Amino acid sequence: MDEKKKSDExxxxxxxxxxxESNKVINTLKGLTVRPGVxxxxxxxxxxKRFLSPVIYFFALLTLHYFLLSLTGFLDxxxxxxxxxxxxxFGQDESLEDHQLEMVVNQFSGFxxxxxxxxxxxxxxxxxxIVLVWLIYRRKKSGFKPHIWLALYxxxxxxxxxxxxxxxxxxxxxxxxxxxxxxxxxxxxxxxxTGQFYxxxxxxxxxxxxxxxxxxxxxxxxVGGIVGVYLGIQIAMELG
Length: 240
Description:
mainly alpha
C-alpha cells in the first residue's frame, strides 16, 4: 500500500513538473501565443491546474534553448563572432603587444561567454530585466509578483520562438539575420503581451515597449562598461 501511495505521489509530482496533467503544456503554449494577457491574469488568480508555472516554463525553455543552440553549433559560432569583434577592436591599439592583446581578448571573451550563457542569463540578465519591468510598469499593476509572472512567461515564450528562428541558421540564414529576426520578434511579442496584460492602447504599448528595450540596452551597456573597467584594472595589475 505504501509503495502504491509513493508511486502515485511520484506520478502526480512528475505530471505537475512536466505539465502533462490536464494538457498544461498545450494550454500554456497556445494561450501565450494568442492571448498572453489572459494566461498571466488567470494564473495570478489561482489557475494552477490549467497552465504551467511561469517559473517552470521560463527555466525549462531557457535550458532547452541553450541545449539546442549548442547542439546545432549556432551558439559557438555566435560567440566566435563576438570574440573576433573584440580582437579587432583592441587590435587597433598599437600600444598593446601581442601577449597583452591576447590577455585582453581572453578576459573580455570570458565575460561575453558568461553573460551569453544560460547561467549568465539566469543570474544577471533575468534579475535586471525583472527589476526594469517593475520600474516601468509598476503603476499599471500593484505589487511585484504580477510583473515577475509577466516577465517569466513572456521571456520564456520569446526563448521558444527565438530558438525556432535560430534553427534556420542551419539552412543558410546568416547570424546577423537570425539576430535581427529574433530582436524583431522579441520587441513585437513584448508589445503584444504587455499591451494585453496591462490593458494598454496600441500606441502606449509600443511606447512602453520601446522604452523598456532602450533602457535595458543602456543598462546592458553600463554593465559592460563597468566590467570593462574592472577587467582593465585587473589586466593592468597583471602586466605590472
